[in-house]
Amino acid sequence: GYRMSRFLHICESAEDLVKQSLMQRELGRRTGSCFQRCVGQDASNAVWGTTYDIDQKHGTKYHERFRAFMAMCQSKNLVLGGAMTDAKGDRNLSPSQQEDPDVYVRVHARKPDGSVVLRGVKAHQTGVLNSHWMII
């Protein structure tokens, strides 16, 4: 093992989640503002479990690729941001009912190699300015 930023650590226990929360609270207390890494941390933990479950069910290799991505981020101490806010459009309609389909992020195309092309927007992501990667 090696030392890494807690922001890049994948939680493995309830104790890890408590440490994550305490760290976030302390940084918020010290800075008095958003330090723009929480969403990336939460997103990487969510993608970790989701890709594992998908691979177990479908025999895909998403988790293997995400593990390699996270190892690269951890070894280089990269900052991960997360895109979490859609532009919204008409809030009375679901995403698929919007006049402009690009007011929500959506899968535009699926490629033969298993990758996807995303289209659409995420709004109000100030953390993108200081992030190496964004998890969408």
Mean pLDDT: 88
Q: What structural category do the secondary elements indicate?
A: alpha+beta
With helices defined by DSSP (H or I, 4 residues minimum), what is the helix count? 3
Q: Using the alpha-carbon principal axes, give the shape.
A: globular
What does the main sheet amount to? 2 strands, parallel
Amount of beta strand: 5-15%
CA gyration radius, whole angstroms? 17 Å
Reading the helices and strands in chain order gives HHHEEEE
- Ranges where pLDDT stays below 50 over 5 or more residues in a row are none
Distance between the termini: 28 Å
Secondary structure: helix percent: 25-40%
Widest β-sheet, arrangement of strands: 1-4
The number of distinct β-strands equals 4
Structural commentary:
The protein is of the alpha+beta class and 136 residues long. 40% of the residues lie in helices and 11% in strands. The protein is built from three helices and four strands, in the order H-H-H-E-E-E-E. The strands form two sheets. The chain has a two-stranded parallel sheet. A two-stranded antiparallel ribbon has the order 2-3. Strand 2 (106-110) and strand 3 form a beta hairpin. Helix 2 (38-58) packs antiparallel against helix 3. The protein is globular, with a radius of gyration of 17 Å. The two termini are 28 Å apart. The mean pLDDT is 88.
